[in-house]
Write a structure and sequence with these properties.
Low-confidence stretches of chain B: none
Radius of gyration of chain A: 42 Å
Radius of gyration of chain B: 23 Å
Shape of chain B: elongated
Strand content of chain A: 25-35%
CATH class of the largest domain in chain A: Alpha Beta
Oligomer: heterodimer
CATH superfamily of the largest domain in chain A: Class I glutamine amidotransferase (GATase) domain
Mean pLDDT of chain B: 88
CATH superfamily of the largest domain in chain B: von Willebrand factor, type A domain
Largest sheet of chain B: 6 strands, mixed
Helix content of chain B: 25-40%
Number of domains of chain B: 2
Number of strands of chain B: 13
Helix content of chain A: 10-25%
Shape of chain A: elongated
Structural class of chain A: alpha+beta
CATH class of the largest domain in chain B: Alpha Beta
Low-confidence stretches of chain A: none
Number of helices of chain B: 10
CATH topology of the largest domain in chain A: Rossmann fold
Order of helices and strands of chain B: HHEEEHEEHEEHHEHEHEEHEHE
CATH architecture of the largest domain in chain A: 3-Layer(aba) Sandwich
Largest sheet of chain A: 9 strands, mixed
Largest interface: A-B, 28 and 39 residues
Distance between the termini of chain A: 44 Å
Chain lengths: 620, 301
């Protein structure tokens, strides 16, 4: 099929010249004079009526007409647009699910091995000129191999990849694949996953253009669904408890054994009988020591990655608090609170008194409404409602009522939730200092600002709280603010060294101050990445990591706890081919203008007309 | 290649070296290589007859043997050996240039050159005469092959233009040349035969051996080749006539043309001239070796 068009349709106006040519021919014809050698023979013939103007074209007329027509046709710049033939090459885009559920063991191998085999088979069916691209999908999309016709290289790359300990989010990878397919019309997209199409987050009509291979059928999985370690603040490890939820995702009952160990020392064993789709809560108390808690489930199920979890059992430090405030209400409140905490103590002094004789020693100080010019290095400090102009806690102005609107996951907020209940009457509009990051956001007068900033400056921890603590904190409406303050104080109290970060795989968590490498742990440390600015931890393998040089490393405990991912039941493995096949790839169509050929033909006809005219003796 | 070079092309002229003009009349006055039996002459190389001695005869030609046997004075008479004046009359009127694509005039010039070369090769006296509207333009009498250059120069400079009354021109030339010779007229003869007849008759009355060679173009034989209708204009007189070529008019034209050719044939027969019609699309060499040989004007040496 080919299309025909005109680039200069207005040039067709010149067609009127053809009419003029015909008129000229008719006008000239009776006047045409033909010289002859002699007339005496012709004179004996009857004279032809000269008034007759019947159109009687001659060869010259046809030549002139054809030449003019060709030149006019060239003027309108016609073009031919031929539909390009389908290209011989095809493109294959493989989307391979590498999430944790792909570790599930099925008859014949793991889901990932089955998917990789399908991918290899699909690769083997490609022609030598076909191109392939491989995208892996866990909680993010990763381009494993860009478009290449080197199938061996793509196959080798497939061999190097394996399933991770992260949740599944196919949406980014499928969006990427569909965009690539749209850019390359002949692309066949093959998705290899254990996620049903309805859970991909992609519209069904878009998924209709891809070959969707859903792998896996078993639901035989028991998992540690969650681990919660409750450590009372400002206390040692003894009153700590750990609550473990073990869930049976299969349709049959399971008898499992849960073991808990802290740094290799057994904390306890529990034998559980789990009914189909049932969960059991196991509470462990009185830990033998503080340290890394490792929970292991002996379940003999299809997915092992969720049978292990780690947590941190910390030893709480007693609160040694210095409250520097001129507010009697505030100092009285803290005196009461600290008196209620066993082993804790508080020293209260006014601002002027603090300026005169700064108390030494390692402790936590709370500065209410002011920021002292000098704080001893061993003191971790919380600045409450810092005034404007402070270099430590930059504050622009004092606002009126403000409410907390957002917060991030940070150790300062451990155990706290529903912070949106915090409302303050008098609030400093904080900025974010270079030494810290914003933990809690508040809003007032239609604008948001940091409400709690925490970080490390030098060798000590600092925090800035925008809300004014004046007034009775023990009242019910002020209690969330008091709990936030105590939580920050706990963070300031706990020893920095040796406190591991507990994170979840696939989710970025602020790394905070400290070394960023090298990383030792699962997969030679590659299971944890310390990336970005500010740095974040991003774990793709569950386990215990050490980040930093020997002797100064900090520990990161990465858990894979994802209820949706552990629910591996798919009931059937299906392959659904694309309902809407991709259009065959065609070479770019470029209009081919033929105007110049017509000009050339017109010129040739003009030459022929001239030659004919000469042959006829210069007369028509 | 210039016109002169074309006319003097040795590759072409070489074809004529073994040919000669065959003439039966037109014996000239000057001695030459051609023998004219029946015209005894007092000198020569071949004894033709004897006559009685009369005072004044050259005693060197007395036949002394006859005097001894017969006691009669007899004088030898020899076969006349004369040159033949060959007059090449070329019609240079404008009608020779039409139809342009037929090249009638060019063919006439080539034929004139060929015939002149044949005459020069036979040691005849050749004179080329261009019959133009301004009057005849004649070359000097040319003899021997080197005269071909002068002949070619004259022919090469000639152009076909202007109006010419062929009959009057021939008559005028006849009146200016009393000595007999061979007259070869190269023309299209596209004029009324009665207008040509006086000229041919005048030539014949001077005892010239007259040969009429008519050169016509294919466009004249088949006018549909060049036009279907239009106003025909006589290139010499300027007269016009509107014509539309229909089957009927073409048939009438063909009939008139044949009648014209027949009239020319009758003219030649009546005046004792020879007549040959050739078309311009035939090469001059082919005309010389074909048509003119069949006519008897050209033969092998």
């Amino acid at each position: 099929m080919s299309a025909f068009g005109l680039l200069n349709p207005t040039g067709a106006i010149a067609l009127t010249l053809l009419i003029a040519l015909i008129a000229l021919h008719l006008w000239q014809r009776p006047r045409r004079t033909i010289p002859v050698a002699t007339l005496f023979l012709w004179a004996r013939l009857p004279t032809a009526p000269s008034e007759r103007r019947r159109f009687r074209p001659t060869a010259l007329f046809w030549l002139r007409l054809a030449a003019a027509a060709m030149l006019i046709a060239g003027l309108v710049r016609p073009y031919v647009e031929r539909e390009a033939a389908p290209l011989d090459t095809r493109s294959l885009l493989l989307v391979l699910d590498v999430s944790a559920s792909m570790q599930t063991r099925e008859p014949g191998g793991s889901r990932f091995e089955l998917a990789r085999q399908r991918a290899a088979d699909t690769l083997a069916a490609l022609g030598p000129n076909d191109t392939v691209m491989v995208v892996t999908a866990d909680d993010h999309a990763h381009v494993l191999e860009r478009w290449t016709s080197d199938h061996t290289r793509a196959r080798r790359r497939l061999e190097t990849v394996g399933p991770l300990d992260t949740p599944t989010n196919l949406t980014p990878a499928l969006t990427l694949a569909l965009a690539e397919a749209e850019a390359r019309p002949a692309t066949r997209v093959v998705v290899l996953t254990d996620v049903p199409p309805a859970e991909t987050g992609i519209a069904p009509d878009a998924l209709a253009t891809v070959d969707y291979v859903q792998i896996g059928a078993t639901d035989d999985n028991v998992a540690i669904a969650s681990v919660t370690v409750d450590v009372p603040p400002f206390r040692d490890a003894a009153p700590t408890s750990a609550t473990v939820v073990v869930r049976n995702y299969s349709a049959r009952s399971h008898r499992v054994v849960l073991g808990a160990h802290i740094d290799g020392e057994t904390w306890g064993w529990r034998t559980l009988t789990l009914e189909p789709h049932a969960a059991e809560h196991v509470t462990l108390v009185d830990p033998p020591r503080d340290g890394v808690l490792v929970l292991e489930l002996d379940a003999q199920d299809a997915l092992a990655v969720d049978n292990r979890a780690v947590a941190w059992i910390s030893r709480g430090a007693p609160l040694d608090l210095l409250v520097v405030s001129d507010s009697r209400t505030l100092t009285a409140t803290f005196a009461e609170v600290v008196a209620a905490i066993v082993g804790s103590k508080v020293e209260i002094m006014g601002r002027e008194e603090y300026e005169r004789a700064r108390p030494a020693g390692r402790r936590v100080a709370l500065f209410d409404g002011f920021v002292p010019a000098h704080v001893p290095p061993a003191v971790n400090a919380l600045y409450v409602a810092p005034p404007p102009g402070s270099p430590v806690c930059p504050s622009a102005e004092i606002l009126g009522e403000a409410a907390v609107i957002d917060w991030i996951d940070h150790p300062t907020l451990a155990g706290l939730r529903d912070l949106q209940a915090i409302v303050t009457d008098r609030t400093s509009r904080l900025g974010t200092p270079a030494w810290g990051s914003t933990i809690v956001h508040a809003a007032a007068h239609g604008q948001s600002f940091p409400f709690l900033v925490a970080g490390q400056r030098g060798s000590r921890r600092l925090a800035c709280l925008a809300g004014d603590l004046a007034g009775p904190l023990a009242s019910s409406d002020r209690l969330p603010l008091l709990m936030l303050t105590l939580s920050v104080l706990r963070w300031l109290t706990e020893p920095y060294a040796g406190a591991p970060r507990v994170i979840e795989t696939g989710a970025a968590a602020l790394a905070g101050p400290g070394p960023r490498g090298p990383v030792a742990g699962p997969d030679q440390g590659t299971g944890l990445a310390v990336i970005g600015d500010p740095p974040v931890f991003l774990a793709r393998r569950a386990g215990v990591y050490r980040v930093g040089p020997p002797g100064g490393a900090r520990r990161v405990l990465a858990n894979f706890v994802d209820d949706r991912e552990s629910d591996i039941g798919r009931y059937e493995a299906t392959t659904r081919l694309a309902e809407t096949p991709m259009a065959p790839s065609r070479a770019p169509v470029k209009p081919r203008e033929i105007g110049w050929w017509l000009y050339l033909l017109g010129a040739g006809l003009l030459i022929a007309e001239w030659a004919t005219w000469r042959r006829l003796g210069g007369e028509t | 290649m210039s016109r002169l070079e074309e006319l003097l092309d040795l590759d072409v002229l070489r074809h004529y070296d073994r040919l000669a003009l065959h003439v039966r009349r037109g014996m000239g006055d000057r001695p030459g290589d051609r023998r004219f039996p029946g015209h005894p002459h007092t000198s020569g190389t071949e004894v033709e007859s004897y006559v009685s001695y009369t005072p004044g005869d050259d005693v060197r030609h007395l036949d002394w043997n006859a005097l001894g046997r017969l006691d009669t004075l007899l004088v030898r008479r020899f076969t006349a050996e004369r040159e033949v004046p060959i007059h090449l009359l070329i019609d240079c009127s404008a009608s020779m240039s039409l139809p342009a694509r037929d090249g009638k005039y060019a063919r006439a010039i080539e034929l004139a050159m060929a015939l002149g070369y044949l005459g020069l090769s036979s040691n005849d006296a050749v004179r080329a005469v261009l019959l133009t509207a301004q009057g005849p333009r004649a070359s000097r009498v040319l003899r021997q092959r080197p005269g071909a250059v002068a002949l070619a120069q004259l022919l090469g400079e000639a152009t076909a233009e202007g109006a010419l009354d062929l009959g009057s021109a021939l008559a005028e030339y006849a009146s200016s040349r009393s000595a007999p010779g061979v007259i070869i007229v190269l023309s299209d003869f596209m004029a009324e035969v009665p207008a040509i007849e006086p000229g041919v008759a005048a030539l014949r009355s001077r005892n010239h051996d007259v040969h009429l060679i008519q050169i016509v173009g294919q466009g004249e034989l088949d006018p549909t080749r060049d036009f279907a209708s239009g106003v025909l204009r006589d290139v010499e007189s300027g007269a016009t006539h509107a014509v539309q070529l229909t089957p009927a008019s073409l048939a009438s034209y063909a009939s008139l043309l044949e009648e014209h050719f027949a009239a020319l044939t009758r003219l030649a027969t009546a005046t004792g001239a020879s007549y040959l019609r050739v078309t311009s699309d035939v090469a001059a060499a082919d005309i010389v070796t074909g048509d003119l040989a069949r006519l008897g004007l050209v033969r092998r040496r």
